[in-house]
Amino acid sequence: MVFTIFAHLVYPSQAEQKIALEDMVGQMLLVGFRGTDITENSSIVQMLYELNLGGVVLFDYDVPSQSFPRNILDPKQTQKLIADLQRSSKTPLLVAVDAEGGRINRLQAKYGFLDIPSAQEMGRKTYQECFTIYRTLAQQLHDLGFNLNLAPVVDLNLNPKNPVIGSLERSYSGKSQKVTECALAFIAAHREKKLITTLKHFPGHGSSQQDSHLGLVDVTRTYEAIELQPYRDLIQKNHAETVMTAHIMNRKIDPKFPATLSQEYIQHQLRDKLSFQGVVISDDMQMGAITEHYGFAEALILAINAGCDLIALANNAKTYDETLPIHAHRIIVAAVKTGRISIQRIDEAYERLKQLKTKYGILKP
Question: Is residue 364 part of a domain?
């Protein structure tokens, strides 16, 4: 594989350093890859350096080939893989995993990891019981080398038959107070081990009747205002480090774009109304809700302009493209150079990501 070194366009950051545009854009990418181990010749290792990637996300199952394993075999192998990735990276990485518990947990007990109950089961427990269980999860993630858990789900269980939330037992409750209580326990346990957490799926996926992995989901008729309450509560309590957007449409809020691509959702609803100041993470940009309705390049530009700071490229949908991060990086850099994305928007995202990594000890001050 041939990697092209990009020409450097520089812009002064708030730290009064000249940071290359290409390096800032690289930090905005959270990517998936294949492999249970790496060498200096692995494509992911080359991209970590050439693109200055901000983070990686690990999976146990490879969807395109419908096979195990993808990245995760057992605790010892996973710990070594993460350590090798960090040693190979130009900048210390966010290393992410979906470890919600129950069925959505890439660290399964059958591989030698902890057996963590589903959110639905945890919703029947007290705060202290939740905290105790989640403390063991956080310890495991810390010991393995992860620093970002793409959880907790704070969607309200308004439709128990929801194919992607309720039916998979990913929601704590249909009551916002209980969802907030369980999420607080989850976040507090992770913070104790210096682990970043992610509230998802903003502005709420719990009332949907379809799966956004497969296509665009319209919640205009089912969405309820109470679905924002857990976000409001957790942001006010300073328990929201990152928020992941949902690929859902609510035409009463934005008649044109799903939340991930919508300035109305991210800027007006999340930042202005709810006063969220942290990092906004897009849900996977290869999900059917995006790929079937927007071109990949256009969707990337829309997501960044809408306010997404970290772009998730799981590379674990219908097909696998080893060069996907390179392609995405070039699209974003070109969009800045042609004025479709402002350099101020890139700098803003980069600064938020740098502050988050510094706060959690991933970067040194």
Answer: no
